[in-house]
């Protein structure tokens, strides 16, 4: 790269390592043949453990059970469960026979569950029994009548689950291999529902090739080998857990460690300590919660070297503490979306603090990225803000049975339009400046919330902050800062924030409104739902 000022905001990821051409099942076999006695999976809550040989044997037993129940290539199998070993068994068993696993958020209630089961045509639902306030058995019974294609529901940890696995005894190894021989790596293997800002969620349909390669190259950039042990407090029903976590690990012979059914900061650190994990994943709020534990210093985290922080921008101070106090010198920032399997850009293990906090890294091997004018689609010069687009093996097959909605985001050149505003720097690193629809236009000035958020993170009273635009008669939009204070009893005032910003931010960037909150509304993947913050503020007026 010349660094010439007219250089365009385009980059392609070169690689000496070729793409994988196998299916998820054959890739698991390759790992198991190389490392049969290494641990593949540890479930900290129950103490259960699997070597690769044991894990693959259990995957194959479940795969034969699915075949015995009439599930075959292309059939949809729903998984509606919290993090547990059975989740991985279902993930790899469905892939083994070419069934399409449909991820269902465990927070879904009956209305959402029924929609997803119907829209994807799920034939078999595999679900938890209950967790916290969710009674999965009761909800599954309630919607069964609305889902004509749903033939069977199996609950994990019940006799029904044991019977499903035992049914595999009636299916021979040769029958399983014959089913697997029919598969192509370009077959769909997974449907993940992404929350649209309007209307029903869309089912991003991903192939073996999409997610196996994405997990593999994320793992490559983290330097994974069979020596690594990956602690996953992030949900499996999202790409963060099942692709960047599970597939990155199994494609390298590493071990997956489940600390708890859902995120618990103390359980995560205890699992790292007890299992000598080398890698830990989370969204920034998870790392903030872990660092904030009163007994944080008592955990031995010296085995850690790497991990992934993704989902939303990482505050500089948090990143400093993660590197220094959690021993994660090689922690990576990843950026992506479900529709791109998910990761498009990633920081490298030797990147400095500035690149890990001001950018989301550079393009992954075998992928392309560009920043375009949202109006014309023309690629912009480096340094100019526009819409980020990505192309390559990672782009989904499409939204399940929704060609029109697919065509709205994937253009004729197979570029995925992310809807994110980004700037490509001279060094090829990308900074995400917000969503196109998050950009605030105040009195004709384009205001990017991320810049104001980063500045307000440095305020001594502010623990977390989100900035959104709210309607204003005079300026079109005004700026609202939603803050979570360090101390709910002593939150910052609007005047304090204005004084803090004065002389350091342009006047039009200073928040006009303030709302003090205890927590932010979150999406399933750990992103703050800014659309909800805007709606609440616009409906009731900012506090």
Automatic annotation (TrEMBL):
Show the SUPFAM superfamilies listed in the entry: Acetyl-CoA synthetase-like
Q: Name one Pfam family in it.
A: AMP-binding_C
Keyword Ligase listed? The answer is yes
Q: Which keywords fit this entry according to its UniProt record? A: Ligase
AMP-dependent synthetase/ligase domain ranges (all copies): 29-400
The protein's matches in CDD domains, at most eight in alphabetical order, are given as: FACL_like_2
Q: Which residues form a coiled coil?
A: none
The AMP-binding enzyme C-terminal domain is annotated at 451-527
UniProt similarity note = Belongs to the ATP-dependent AMP-binding enzyme family.
Q: Could you identify this protein by its name? A: AMP-binding protein
């Amino acid at each position: 790269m010349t660094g010439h000022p007219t250089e365009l905001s385009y980059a392609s990821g070169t690689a000496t390592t070729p793409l994988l051409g196998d299916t998820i099942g054959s890739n698991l076999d390759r790992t198991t043949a190389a490392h049969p006695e290494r641990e593949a999976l540890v479930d900290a809550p129950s103490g259960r453990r699997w070597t690769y040989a044991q894990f693959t044997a259990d995957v194959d037993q479940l795969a034969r059970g699915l075949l015995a129940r009439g599930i075959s290539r292309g059939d949809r199998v729903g998984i509606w469960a919290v993090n547990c070993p059975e989740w991985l068994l279902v993930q790899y068993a469905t892939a083994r026979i070419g069934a399409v696993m449909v991820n269902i958020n465990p927070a879904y209630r009956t209305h959402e569950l029924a929609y997803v089961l119907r829209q994807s045509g799920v034939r078999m639902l595999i679900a938890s029994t209950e967790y916290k306030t969710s009674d999965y058995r009761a909800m599954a019974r309630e919607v069964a009548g609305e889902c004509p294609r749903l033939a069977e529901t199996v609950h994990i940890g019940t006799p029904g689950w044991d019977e499903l696995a035992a049914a595999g005894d009636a299916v021979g190894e040769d029958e399983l291999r014959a089913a697997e021989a029919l598969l192509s790596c370009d077959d769909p293997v997974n449907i993940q529902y992404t929350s649209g800002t309007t209307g029903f969620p869309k089912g991003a349909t991903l192939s073996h090739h999409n997610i196996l390669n994405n997990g593999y190259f994320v793992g490559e950039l983290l330097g994974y080998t069979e020596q690594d042990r990956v602690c996953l407090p992030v949900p499996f029903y999202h790409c963060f857990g099942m692709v960047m976590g599970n597939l990155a690990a199994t494609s390298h012979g590493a071990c997956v460690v489940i600390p708890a059914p859902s995120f618990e900061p103390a359980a995560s650190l205890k699992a790292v300590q007890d299992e000598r994990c080398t890698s830990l994943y989370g969204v920034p709020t998870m790392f903030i919660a872990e660092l904030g534990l009163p007994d944080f210093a008592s955990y031995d985290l010296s085995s850690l070297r790497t991990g992934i922080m993704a989902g939303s921008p990482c505050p500089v101070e948090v990143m400093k503490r993660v590197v220094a106090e959690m021993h994660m010198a090689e922690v990576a920032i990843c950026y992506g979306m479900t529709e791109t399997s998910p990761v498009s850009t990633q920081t490298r293990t030797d990147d400095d603090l500035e690149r890990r906090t001001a950018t989301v890294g550079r393009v992954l091997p075998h992928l392309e990225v560009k920043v375009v004018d949202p109006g014309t689609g023309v690629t912009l010069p480096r340094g100019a803000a526009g819409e980020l687009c990505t192309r390559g093996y990672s782009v989904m097959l499409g939204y399940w049975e929704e060609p029109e909605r697919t065509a709205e985001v994937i253009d004729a050149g197979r570029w995925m339009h992310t809807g994110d505003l980004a700037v490509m720097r001279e060094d090829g690193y990308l900074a995400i400046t917000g969503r196109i629809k998050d950009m605030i236009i105040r009195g004709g000035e384009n205001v990017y919330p991320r810049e104001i958020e980063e500045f307000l993170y440095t305020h001594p009273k502010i623990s977390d902050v989100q900035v959104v635009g709210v309607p204003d008669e005079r300026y079109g939009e005004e700026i609202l800062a939603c803050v979570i204070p360090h101390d709910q009893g002593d939150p910052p005032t609007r005047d304090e924030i204005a004084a803090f910003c004065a002389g350091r931010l342009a006047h039009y960037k200073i928040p006009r409104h303030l709302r003090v909150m205890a927590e932010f509304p979150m999406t399933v993947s750990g992103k703050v739902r800014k659309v909800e913050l805007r709606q609440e503020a616009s409906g009731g007026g900012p506090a």
